[in-house]
Amino acid sequence: MAGLTSEELAFFKDNGYLVIPGALSPGVVDELKKETASLLDGFSLEGHPMTRFTTAGENGEDEKKHKERLSSPSTSLHLSLLTQPFTDAFNSAGALIRPKSLAINKIGHALHSLSAPFRSMTLSQRNKAVAASLGFHDPRVLQSMIICKQPEIGGAVHSHQDSTFLYTDPPSAVGFWYALEDANAENGCLSFVPGSHKWAPIKRRFVRCDAGGTGFEELGEGQGDGVKERFGGEAAEVGEKRDKEFVMREVKSGDLVLIDGNVLHKSEKNTSGVSRWIYTFHVIEGERRYDERNWLQPTEAGFSSLNEV
Fold this sequence. Notes:
iron, alpha+beta, metal ion binding, 6 helices, 9-stranded mixed sheet, 4-stranded antiparallel sheet, Phytanoyl-CoA dioxygenase
């Protein structure tokens, strides 16, 4: 199974992201959407923590007190109900005022382990070949989830770097972001700062707090870089983030977007009347240190290995 072409690999190394059109066939997309709809319709609200997912803080900082996430990683489907500061899915009494299937933000974080259709698509020869093209020796899959940017309430996700949340030493995460529906300017497609992975080190990591819950831990001097190791003399001088540097990339259903863990990216609010469903998982280098401080922890079996596909 072929991985990336030399042209695709060069674009990814230069820009920190890559769009691969038509990576999933229409039949596979339909199967995954059917499974997603079944999960959205089938879960019960009874006993659900009703976690209110917000994206108002940079790098998701408003979520840091949600202790429910600690039990979600690889043991159960984590269903996070989406609310936003301006267009809530709840009323003032805390009752859900939208159909549950239109209020869910996320289904995760071990979808490839718990759902047969997503497991088949994720642990595939194609993804294994792509990971090999990117230089992974021991590619490990983690944080697999559906993100439903719901019509009208799907909020903006501010500029962030994925390796903040999936930290290895040095950083190694790459996101595999599959569009199950068209993603455009109206319903919240991704935007990137091209090349920022070459000058933007990871300055903090998302960890389990000793007092419970989760929060951010600042990294020391020289930690979280990995830029010089990967790019050597090609690494640019540290730049200043400016909104005008972001480049928006609209994609079609079935397209794959690869996202370097250091590249700055974001998405805008869904202002349209149509949803934006995507399936994403991340790959980290199993040969890098991934420690017990990270908020997301594997089961006893460890994170899934693409080398075993």
